[in-house]
Amino acid sequence: MLPRRLNPNVLVSGTPGTGKSTTCELLQRRLKDATYYNISDFAREHNCYSGYDEGRKSHIVDEDLLLDELEPLLRKGGAIVDWHVNDVFPERLIDLVVVLRCDNSTLYDRLQMRKYHDAKIQENLDAEIMGVVMQDALDSYAQEIVVELRSDTADEMDENVDRIVAWTENWLKQHKDGVTNELDGQNEDASSEEDQDYEDDTQSEDSSQSDK
Ligand SMILES: Nc1ncnc2c1ncn2[C@@H]1O[C@H](COP(=O)(O)OP(=O)(O)O)[C@@H](O)[C@H]1O
After folding, report:
1. Ligand 1 pocket test: which of 42, 58, 110 has the largest number of ligand atoms within 8 Å of its C-beta?
2. Residue 97 lies in a domain
3. Which helix (H) or strand (E) holds 63?
4. Which of 58, 59, 129, 203 has the highest count of CB atoms within 10 angstroms of its CB?
């Protein structure tokens, strides 16, 4: 099977504060053909909002508008996508899902540094303890393309970047050699059904708050 795109799309997800943006910035420096999309920034720049949540003090992202803007870019491949919500992007557009995890006391410190209010910190700590983002990823994508990585320390972050770069190089090598990536078959098979799921999906707006 021919590759669907020349470079893979990597989704870096995780509870706010687990290290997505920092990891993605490091990744972008290493993957010269990649384009980094911080979805919080992207949604703001493209005005993909459906309202403002006073309680959370954050904009509510309109996932349909977001996907309308982003899909043509993801189709090109080579995207590093940074967002805490991962069920927005159809399975056919994503080749690897990385879910960053971190210790709760570390996360607390990071979110406090970011000056989140107490309720927002607690909400994110609860989500991290319950593994909400990881569960969403497993519910949304084939288990084989979802990987959970610890991101408590700078060394772990470096290791994570090395691992994602190595995975990308391997993906490129497989496609260059014309070797069928078994994930392709799974994704292609799932795509039409998944598209239908996406059409039918009425996302809870609560799950798509802009986190920054
Ligand atoms: N693995 C890590 N080791 C040390 N500091 C980290 C690590 N991951 C993130 N940080 C720090 O935590 C803060 C939040 O990271 P950030 O990348 O903005 O998280 P996110 O994008 O998931 O909200 C930043 O100050 C960042 O430098």
Report:
1. 110
2. yes
3. helix 63-76
4. 59
